[in-house]
Specification:
about 220 residues, alpha/beta, Rossmann fold, disordered C terminus
């Protein structure tokens, strides 16, 4: 019964996610499902991304947390619309939560929505949100073995952001081991090495993202 119930939940979520995807595509909105462990630097990365895109694109953020509205308040301080979703204990966002958040956004004015999923390397990847792209942040202090321990999120993600590279000289982290592990799971994954503290690598990431949006929505011109 538990397996059947789980299948039913995922099937219902996928059906709604397909509707959300259609809405996003019709509105020409590029949607990022951003996943990571707690403390990996999701919000800091989002704020750096906002600063890099704000002159070219209209951005909104949907923040997912078990409790509090701290992250949404930080985003709003940067002049960007931010909707807070508190799951009340659930370890992930789902398509129904995103549908509710969309009612509070002016979709016609947006070019990109960044969804900051609940901090977790397991549950979030199982639930489609209708996103354009899934991406994961891994921070250097977490260790280079995470793709081997939590393979699904690295297999499903198109982008990996390796954050806190300014700490490489201070922790036991082997870049070669990370890349070898990723090659065995998802050799096509796009890797960006950044330091949100020093804004290092953000320009490369923003340039790639703008290129993807050009291909899909033609909002930006060369």
């Amino acid at each position: 019964m538990e397996i059947k119930l789980r299948q039913n939940i995922l099937a219902a979520n996928d059906k709604l996610a397909a509707k959300l995807k259609e809405i996003f595509e019709n509105k020409g909105i590029y949607v990022i499902n951003l996943m990571a462990s707690p403390g990996a630097g999701k919000t800091s990365f989002i704020l750096q991304t906002i600063e890099a895109l704000k002159d070219d694109l209209n951005v909104a953020v949907i923040e997912g947390d078990i409790a509090s509205k701290v992250d949404a308040e930080k985003v709003r301080e940067h002049g960007v619309a931010a909707i807070q979703i508190n799951t009340g204990g659930a370890c992930h966002l789902d398509a129904n939560m995103i549908r509710g958040a969309l009612n509070m956004l002016d979709l016609d004015s947006l070019d990109i929505i960044i969804i900051e999923n609940v901090g977790n390397l397991v549950c979030p990847v199982e639930f489609d949100l209708g996103e354009t792209v899934k991406m994961v942040i891994l921070s250097v202090p977490e260790g280079d073995d995470k793709p081997l321990k939590y393979p699904s999120i690295f297999v499903e993600s198109e982008v990996l952001v390796l954050n806190k590279i300014d700490l490489l000289d201070y922790v036991d982290f082997n870049l070669e081991s990370l890349e070898n592990g990723l090659n065995g799971l998802n050799p096509a994954i796009n890797i960006f090495k950044v330091s949100c503290k020093y804004a290092s690598g953000i320009d490369e990431w923003a340039s790639w993202l703008k290129g993807q949006i050009r291909k899909k929505s033609k909002f930006l011109t060369d």
